[in-house]
UniProtKB/TrEMBL annotation:
Keyword Isomerase: yes
SUPFAM superfamilies in the cross-refs: FAD-linked reductases, C-terminal domain, FAD/NAD(P)-binding domain
UniProt source species: Streptomyces lannensis
Family, as annotated: Belongs to the GMC oxidoreductase family.
Keywords on record: Cholesterol metabolism, FAD, Flavoprotein, Isomerase, Lipid metabolism, Oxidoreductase, Steroid metabolism, Sterol metabolism
Protein name (Swiss-Prot/TrEMBL): Cholesterol oxidase
Annotated metabolic or biological route of this protein: Steroid metabolism; cholesterol degradation
Residue ranges of every copy of the Glucose-methanol-choline oxidoreductase C-terminal domain listed in the record: 439-489
This protein's record includes keyword Transmembrane helix: no
Enzyme Commission number(s): 1.1.3.6, 5.3.3.1
Gene3D superfamilies assigned to the protein according to its UniProt record, in alphabetical order: Cholesterol Oxidase, domain 2, FAD/NAD(P)-binding domain
Cofactor: FAD
InterPro entries named among the record's database cross-references: Cholesterol_Oxidase (IPR052542), FAD/NAD-bd_sf (IPR036188), GMC_OxRtase_C (IPR007867)
């Protein structure tokens, strides 16, 4: 078989992969990015690149015949999910025994589907999670660099107070304040100037048209518009799409060998390609990178990988509750999909919670306050390699999710008591759950910085092999993770380009 050779290969084009690609390209190193999803730049029959959340089609989800939206129901009716055709759609939901994980698929990874919230953790918490990293340097250099590269901006507070799109956030803020809880504005990569023009009716609506988890057609600064556009602009970076890396080996001369499956739009594997490189960067995300490394260790391809590979995984304490407001506390029919406020109870050391006030844009008044609570759940799980199915199994249990629920309930019980309100039991499936605790948007860990790697993401046991993505974060960061992932990747690339690639 022919082998394509590149000095550097990056697996995955999310945050970790995009930072690696740009910095390698700028350093003059020819780099190939392998991404299993498609490039989202071509309009479909409706003239839009991404389909709408309200009328999802095959573009919505990764090889499904039915959508699997986080909110399965409303008033117990299965009104949210739709039959769709199988296609490499942009949002995937990966199912494990007691936990499913939402991830983005495509050039730009999670940036294509996420809420755009760009939040730095509290320095003290960052220091606890990353004892081998210089916290002061992170906050002086790498967080600012990540913010500026990602195009982070903040909603204008005066406009926030007046616009109908954030009535839902103001209503939830009031309910929190009644319980003595503080809210804080959350920065975002969605262009708030564009959103104001949406509200004014002068541009095509995106955040104000319900777009987010199946992609935004306008307004959001996704990685394909920031890091990856700059990476391609160096002239040294190529991105191959619809290629899923299946295994990694090392040849006798120390170079890395990769086997990738080529996927066609119907999901069939239509061929395999072999690659080789000197420097290998893994940016396939917490699930993708951990699975590749676990597979490599357990099949004997990279036997010297550390025992800790596959451990230290967590959900960032994610859990979602909904509350029913009083009839006079309206949320508005025209919710922006981009969250801008968080209830900040992280100082409560016995029960730390950062609860994003989440939109539920249904195009009608529903009086529901929805939240994405990031709890300080200390539970962690490990992946094991299942030889029979040649796949990774996740050991996370329902009891571990119950810890997140207890912490979130502690906070939302206070809010309900102070407002004489109740939970909604109809939003998360037929079991009548008040808390969605069986999925996460924030998979973290599996190849933890300083344990499976050195303090800079260099994988233990092998030279010129690096991890730059969310698998480095030990299961929790207390806030939404992509800003931290980006900043850590910037730090790694600065060090690696200075020390490892100089000839
Ligand atoms: P990813 O962004 O997941 O990128 C990994 C890429 O690698 C993907 O494109 C994937 O297709 C590709 N890949 C995987 N395996 C392979 C393989 N074997 N071969 C080839 N390619 C492969 N975070 C925030 O900070 N703020 C938010 O507001 C926010 N909202 C979210 C909302 C949703 C609905 C979701 C799903 C996530 C959200 N997140 C948010 C989380 C955030 O998107 C992730 O933490 C982030 O994308 C992780 O970055 P990463 O570099 O680790 O990997």
């Amino acid at each position: 078989d022919a082998v394509d050779t590149a000095p550097a290969i990056v697996v995955g084009s999310g945050y970790g992969g995009a930072v690696a690609a740009l910095r390698l390209g700028q350093a003059g190193i020819r780099t190939l990015v392998l991404e299993m999803g498609r490039l989202w730049n071509t309009p479909g029959p409706d003239g839009q690149v991404f389909c709408s959340t309200r009328a999802p089609d095959r573009r919505s989800m990764w090889f499904r015949t039915r959508t699997e939206a986080p909110l399965a129901a409303f008033l117990w009716l299965d009104v949210v999910n739709r039959a769709i055709g199988r296609y490499p759609g942009v949002l995937d939901r990966v199912h494990f025994d007691a936990m499913s994980v939402y991830v983005g698929r495509g050039v730009g990874g999670g940036s294509l589907v996420n809420g755009g919230m760009a939040v730095a953790p509290q320095p003290a918490y960052f220091g606890v999670q990353f004892p081998t990293v210089d916290t002061a340097e992170m906050y002086a250099t790498y967080f600012p660099r990540a913010r500026s590269m990602l195009g982070v901006n903040t909603v204008d507070p005066a406009w926030f107070e007046s616009t109908d799109g954030y009535r839902f956030a103001r209503t939830s803020r009031k309910a929190a304040a009644n319980a003595g809880l503080r809210t804080t504005f959350v920065p975002n990569v969605y262009d708030f100037g564009y959103m104001r023009r949406e509200a004014a009716g002068t541009v095509t609506r995106s955040a104000l048209a319900g777009e987010v988890i199946y992609g935004n057609n306008h307004g959001k600064r996704t990685l394909d518009k920031t890091y990856l556009a700059s990476a391609l602009g160096t002239g040294n970076v190529t991105i191959n799409t619809l290629e899923r890396v299946r295994e990694i080996r090392r040849s006798a001369d120390g170079s890395y060998l990769l086997a990738a499956d080529r996927i066609d739009p119907a999901g069939a594997v239509v061929g395999s390609r072999q690659y080789s490189c000197t420097y290998l960067f893994l940016g396939a995300g917490s699930l993708g990178t951990t699975e590749l490394l676990l597979h490599a260790r357990e099949t004997g391809a990279l036997p010297a990988l550390d025992e800790s590979v596959g451990t230290g995984w967590g959900t960032n304490g994610n859990v979602m509750p909904g509350r029913a407001n009083h009839l006079w506390d309206t949320v508005g029919a025209d919710e922006s999909t981009i969250p801008v406020l968080g209830i900040d109870d992280r100082a409560n050391t016995a029960n730390p919670v950062f609860a994003e006030i989440a939109p539920l844009p249904m195009g009608l008044e529903h009086w529901i306050s929805l939240y994405l609570a990031i709890t300080g759940n200390p539970e962690r799980a490990s992946f094991t390699y299942d030889r029979a199915t040649d796949s990774a199994r996740l050991g996370w249990s329902a009891a571990q999710s119950a810890v997140s629920v207890r912490m979130a309930k502690n906070l939302f019980d206070r809010i309900n008591a102070a407002n004489a309100t109740i939970y909604r039991y109809d939003l998360f499936g037929s079991a009548g759950k008040a808390f969605a605790d069986d999925f996460t948007y924030h998979p973290l860990g599996g190849c933890v910085l300083g344990r499976s790697t050195d303090a800079y993401g260099r994988v233990k046991g092998y030279s010129r092999l690096y991890v730059t993505d969310g698998s480095l974060v030990p299961g929790s960061i207390g806030v939404n993770p992509f800003l931290t992932i980006t900043a850590l990747a910037e730090r790694t690339m600065t060090r690696v380009l200075a020390e490892d690639t100089a000839s």
